[in-house]
Specification:
The chain is α/β, with parallel strands linked by helices. The chain is built from 23 helices and 7 strands. A hairpin with a 4-residue loop joins β5 and β6. α7 runs antiparallel to α8. The chain is elongated. Pathway: Protein modification; protein ubiquitination. Pfam families: BTB-POZ_ANK-like. Keywords: Ubl conjugation pathway.
């Protein structure tokens, strides 16, 4: 048990002495503790079930009940206070907590059990009785002055009655324990210290009850706590924000809490995202750069375009153009034999950057323009032939990613763009394919082969034939060092030689003519 020291009040007011309060293992005011509530409810439920399941017994002599009824408790309080006036119990509905439900039995006739008493009846001049589920009751011996000073709800109810000793009853409490803790905080000088020992979920419950009781100082202390404490996980963050937004009490400052998840800056997304993209692309540390690329791509995928600036694509394309200019400059330097080792490393970095930017554009369904730009890089494709394999093969990853995107339907370039892409970059990809398989950990040969085949099959049949016959020569000479497009080759073969569509169309017209003649 803990004691709260209360200062003496003026004459003609009730003298407030030390009020004993039960304390949880965490050190917070609680009467009864969560474990006590659970044990009491379980034992009450088990006894009820046992009585219902037990066979009928012969009548026994009546015994006086061991538990004191709520009215007998009130009567004993009258004797202790030596009041001449009769004591009246005022039943108070809990404001906006639980909707009323039809009951088989009147509230007055329900069996009630005082689970625990809180406070000192000898020094109190008011009682608050909390009625929970199944008639589960908690009695609090409190003081009018404390209730009136801290709670608008209690001040209003007490002003309606002129009795010297008031007894207020709150029915249908969702969580009587939280009510006890909140009322106990009215006796506490440093609420922040008490709240520090609690978790976020419990403070949110206290905040809800404090608002129902009009306990403004407690509301502010809870908000100060929530503003300072870390929120663990998205679920807890959502609970805090939803609880704060539901607050209807005027004059409380929720803005500091909401600033954690909202910004008052004017149109910050484009500038912020541009800054992030720039920092990632210019990173010198390979591992950190790779990890942040993965994280940013995942976050953009989860966001799925929501709350992202519409002109963000312009920023991505601007970065793509910078990378392309850098690659072209590096290819020219490498072809002239200047700093071959440095150029090779930088080409690999820029190729990886281009591939990542293409992933971002594909997620945003805005990669068609990139496919046009890449298909027209004829100067870069010519320089590609002049560089050693080890220096150039990374750039073919960009071509591979484009074919995968077209095969998946992530981008839908025009027929001319698809044909130009295959004409410009397919042969360089064939030449680098063996190095890509063995020198690039993230390279998926099966996926690339499927993408190339599907892209070829989207072209007119004559273009399919030209490209696949060219592939056949490379495949027969290169073997595993060349992409395996056999599935696409089979589809083209069936389209061309096994009952071609032109023959089927002719047969269909003949059948139509014969049917019309009949």
């Amino acid at each position: 048990m803990a004691e709260i020291k209360i200062a003496k009040v003026e004459q003609r007011q009730t003298k407030i002495r030390n009020v004993p309060v039960a304390v949880t293992p965490e050190g917070f005011w609680c009467c009864p503790s969560p474990v006590a509530f659970q044990k009491t409810l379980k034992s009450h439920n088990s006894l009820t079930k046992h009585k219902q399941s037990s066979p009928p017994q012969p009548p026994k002599p009546e015994k006086k009940p061991s538990s004191t009824t709520i009215r007998s408790v009130i009567a004993s309080d009258e004797t202790q206070q030596n009041l001449a006036s009769s004591d009246t119990v005022h039943s108070i509905a809990v404001p906006a907590t639980v909707q009323e439900r039809p009951q088989r039995q009147k509230v007055e006739t329900l069996p009630r059990k005082v689970a625990i008493e809180f406070g000192e009846p000898g020094s109190s001049d008011a009682k608050v009785i909390l009625v929970g589920k199944q008639g589960f009751c908690v009695k609090l011996s409190v003081h009018k002055k404390v209730l009136v000073d801290h709670s608008c709800f209690f001040a209003k109810k007490l002003s309606e009655k002129d009795s010297v000793f008031a007894c207020l009853e709150i029915e249908s409490c969702e969580d009587a324990e939280i009510y006890v803790e909140t009322i106990g905080l009215m006796y506490c000088k440093d609420m922040k210290q008490r709240l520090m020992k609690q978790n976020v979920s419990r403070v949110l419950h206290v905040l809800k009850v404090a608002e129902l009781l009009g306990f403004s100082s407690c509301i502010q202390s809870c908000l100060d706590y929530l503003e300072a404490v870390p929120w663990v996980g998205e679920e807890e963050e959502e609970k805090v924000i939803s609880s704060i937004l539901r607050l209807k009490t005027e004059g409380v400052g929720v803005t500091p809490i909401l600033k954690r998840v909202t910004s008052s800056a004017v149109d910050p997304p484009k500038e912020t995202l541009s800054r992030i993209i720039e920092l990632v692309l210019r990173s010198k540390e390979e591992k950190s750069r790779r990890e942040m690329k993965s994280i940013v791509l995942k976050l953009l995928r989860e966001q799925n375009g929501a709350n992202v600036a519409d002109n963000f694509n312009e920023t991505i394309y601007s970065s793509c153009q910078n990378c392309l200019d850098s690659v072209l400059s590096l290819f020219k330097q490498a072809s002239e034999g200047e700093k071959p080792e440095t150029d090779t490393k930088q080409i690999a970095v820029e190729a990886d950057n281009l591939t990542w930017l293409l992933d971002v554009l594909a997620e945003r369904q805005a990669a068609e323009e990139f496919s046009i730009t890449w298909a027209n890089q004829k100067e870069l494709a010519l320089l590609h032939e002049k560089l050693p394999l080890m220096s150039r093969y990374h750039i073919s990853r960009v071509t591979s990613r484009l074919f995968i995107g077209i095969g998946r339907g992530e981008l839908l370039p025009s027929k001319d763009t698809r044909l130009l892409l295959l004409t410009t970059w397919l042969q360089p990809l064939f030449n680098d394919y063996n190095w890509l398989q063995h020198g690039c950990r993230s390279f998926d040969g099966k996926l690339v082969e499927e993408g190339i085949g599907r892209t070829i099959l989207t072209l007119p049949l004559e273009d399919q034939q030209s490209i696949l016959l060219s592939w056949l020569g490379s495949f027969l000479n290169g073997g595993d060092g060349c992409p395996n497009l056999q599935r696409a080759f089979e589809v083209w073969w069936r389209r061309s030689f096994i009952r071609p569509y032109s023959d089927r169309q002719a047969n269909g017209s003949c059948q139509t003519d014969s049917t019309s003649k009949e």
